[in-house]
Write a structure and sequence with these properties.
By secondary structure, this protein is an all-alpha fold. 79% of the residues lie in helices and 0% in strands. The chain has helices spanning 3-18, 29-61, 68-81, 89-108, 111-132. Helix 2 (29-61) packs antiparallel against helix 5 (111-132) and helix 4 (89-108) packs antiparallel against helix 5. The protein is elongated. The model has no long low-confidence stretch (mean pLDDT 83).
């Protein structure tokens, strides 16, 4: 055995005695990293939804029927949003229902129903954000 190997072995032996076994951390680095990535993804999603929702509101206010793709994008983002736990579950079923009403109204070309669904979504958003934000 080389001199260096013996020194390393002795050094490692001393560490074992000096340091008792460590307790595992409550959350691992991977879990913390994933949760921060989820927060970032959720934040980006919410910003995109806010921009799309505002655009839908402007189009409805001008008397135009929003583009079906715009409503489909908002609805798809809404489905992604409700997949995040701990972010307002009591409101998710009503939110999903209102998104479907908005999509159906736009598909039918019914501006009055689309405006009503948009206003109801705005009311729900305000209530949810007041409680969970």
């Amino acid at each position: 055995m080389k001199k260096r190997d013996r020194k390393d072995k002795m050094r490692d032996k001393g560490k074992e005695k000096a340091c008792p076994q460590k307790r595992p951390a409550a959350t691992s680095h991977k879990q913390r990293k994933r949760s921060s990535a989820d927060k970032l993804a959720y934040k980006r999603l919410k910003k995109r939804m806010a921009a799309t929702f505002a655009l839908l509101g402007r189009e409805l206010a001008s008397g135009a029927v929003p583009q079906p793709q715009l409503v489909a994008d908002f609805k798809a983002d809404g489905q992604r949003m409700v997949a995040f736990p701990g972010r307002g579950e009591p409101h998710y079923t009503e939110f999903t229902s209102l998104c479907q009403q908005l999509a159906a109204a736009v598909e039918a070309g019914d501006i009055a129903a689309a405006r009503t669904a948009h206003a109801d979504l705005a009311r729900l958003k305000k209530a949810c954000h007041a409680r969970y934000k």
